[in-house]
Amino acid sequence: MDNIELLIQDNTNSDIYDISDIVEGTITWSTERLGEASNLEFSIIPNGELSFYEGSIVRFKYHGNNIFYGFVFSKSRNKDNVIKVVACDQLRYLKNKETYVFQNKKASEVLIKIANDWELKTGNIDDTGYVIPSMVEDNQSLLDIIYKANDLTLLSTKKLYVLFDNFGKLDLRNVENLKTDLIIDGQTNLIDFDYSSSINDTYNQIKLVKKDKSGGSREVYIVKDSSTIAKWGKLQYYENVDDSLNEAQIIERANKSLSLYNRVNRKLSIPVIGDVRARAGFSIFINKLNLGDIVLNQFMLIEKATHSFSNNDYTMNLELRVI
Predict the structure, then answer these.
(1) Residue limits of the YqbQ/XkdQ domain (predicted)?
(2) Partner of 142 for a Cys bridge, out of 94, 174, 237, 279, CB 3.0 to 4.6 A?
(3) Where are the domains of the chain?
(4) pLDDT at 140 over 90
């Protein structure tokens, strides 16, 4: 297969094998913004000495661009001696569960602490700014703990941060820093699309409750949008907030939450010619795409990206949403 470099390293003796020329069929690289490590799936037909095991390092480059660095998590073989391999990046190790207690830490500091404890490599970590008063996480996955810290930051600042593995190093980046110059034009280079809109995860009334430490009294704060309540009905978000927050902080958080959640959620799926810049968490510009109820002319966030490399053919399918 032209323009690719696919290497696998035996984790018992550090021997490195170039398997680029023995790939059978399609190489698939998948990334998701939330919940999953990125995967690289491929099949090979061994033509000589080749030794690798679960945990072996896999590196993949396309046209010299670093695409994937991960570890073999599963392999299978059929009667034709075709070996199918699935490799995952470092985020797979964040599915381990542990108990953590954090006091007055930023989401970026939570990530650094967990990465250091579990000997994971880090790269570019943006300062998330917001100091989280308290997090007590018992028997939770490391990934969920980091996501919770990011969510609390989002609710308090309206700034969205994305965690991903960047060729062997964990990055935590503000989505504003992940806008690519890739443009999909609705009138020229778009093959097809699938569009949906929903208010299933929409909230037009925010109710935040602060309880004192003894649990004897409650302070209730409510903000709402009467205009969208008239259109969609009352959709309430409810949360118990940290008792260290003062009234001004709670009201600010409620208003930011309403601004964040009080809208129609729009999702778009498109198959297009492949581009290595398009991975989950990054944004691309959709230009002049008429969807019937709206004409898109804006950046959209990639929720999931599936790239397929096959001989000289390179395509991708992107699942997008409005930021």
Answers:
(1) 27-321
(2) 94
(3) 4-88, 93-175, 178-198+264-322, 205-258
(4) yes
Please count the other Cβ atoms lying within 10 Å of the Cβ belonging to residue 12. 11
73 DSSP assignment: E
Lowest mean pLDDT of 17-21, 120-124, 166-170, name the range: 17-21
Angle among Cα 98, 119, 153 to the nearest 5 degrees reads 60
Fold topology of 93-175: Phage tail protein beta-alpha-beta fold (3.55.50)
Residue 114's closest CA among 140, 79, 152?
140
204-216 core/surface letters (b: 16 or more CB in 10 A; e: else): bbbbbebeeeeee
CATH number of the domain at 178-198+264-322, please? 2.40.30.150
Sign of torsion, CA 39 44 48 51?
A: positive
- Which amino acid is present at 132? I
Is-contact 50 17, C-beta < 8 A? yes
Which of the four pLDDT bands, split at 50, 70 and 90, describes residue 1?
A: low
CA gyration radius, the chain: 23
